[in-house]
Amino acid sequence: TRGLAALLVVWHHLKYNRGVSSEKVSDIPILATNLGAIGVDIFFVISGFVIAMTAARLRGQWKIFLAHRIARIVPLYFTISTFALALIIALHFFQNRGLPAFNNIFNSYFFLPLFDTQSFSSPLCANGWTLSFEMWFYLGLCICLAIFGGKLAGYIFPFLMFCGIILVATFYTFPNWYFPKFLFN
């Protein structure tokens, strides 16, 4: 399943990065769709399962859990984001391209979406938006682990996520609900 999800994501990004419409990429009908984007959702589901299993093994030791997640993700992401920022600044000076807004830089390093808009901020690393979802998921799980302990958090956290999804679906048209929409997307 993970291999199929990876292939779907790679195929989707290849099409997207070429700037070609889906219909012009292939004569094979399924390859000419945007179905590849579902690979990200598959990864999120698999990640949620793996994270729940990892958290259960740690028996509620949320600080260790969070430290492991941060050590695994943040150093590489910060390195890539810093390289992207340096490249953007260089292109600004040598090709007179625009610079990112401060909030895009800040939000990239703190895994935050913009709270006053209906779309994500543009992170320095284009695919970094997925890490915003992951880091907030980890933070929510750690809060549940700290309050309820390991096994009980494993039952309560999915229930809270489900309630959040229902809440956002109910109030989806409210313009100022961007952050809840982000959290429970």
List keywords for this structure.
0% strand
Task: Sum up the overall morphology in one term.
Answer: globular
Distance between the termini: 22 Å
Low-pLDDT parts are none
User: How do the SSEs run, as a string of H and E?
Assistant: HHHHHHH
Strand content: under 5%
The overall pLDDT, averaged over residues, is 77
Helix content: 55-70%
Number of distinct beta strands: 0
Radius of gyration: 19 Å
Largest sheet entry: none
The structural class is mainly alpha
Tally of alpha and pi helices? 7
Give your account of this protein's structure.
It is a single chain. The chain is 68% helix and 0% strand. It contains 7 helices and no strands. Helix 1 crosses helix 2, helix 3 packs antiparallel against helix 5 (129-148) and helix 5 (129-148) packs across helix 6 (150-170). The protein starts with a helix and ends with a helix.
Short structural summary:
The chain has 185 residues and is mostly helical. The protein is built from seven helices and no strands.
SSE map:
Elements: H1 2-18, H2 38-57, H3 62-95, H4 102-109, H5 129-148, H6 150-170, H7 178-183
Helix pairs in contact: 1-2, 2-5, 3-5, 5-6
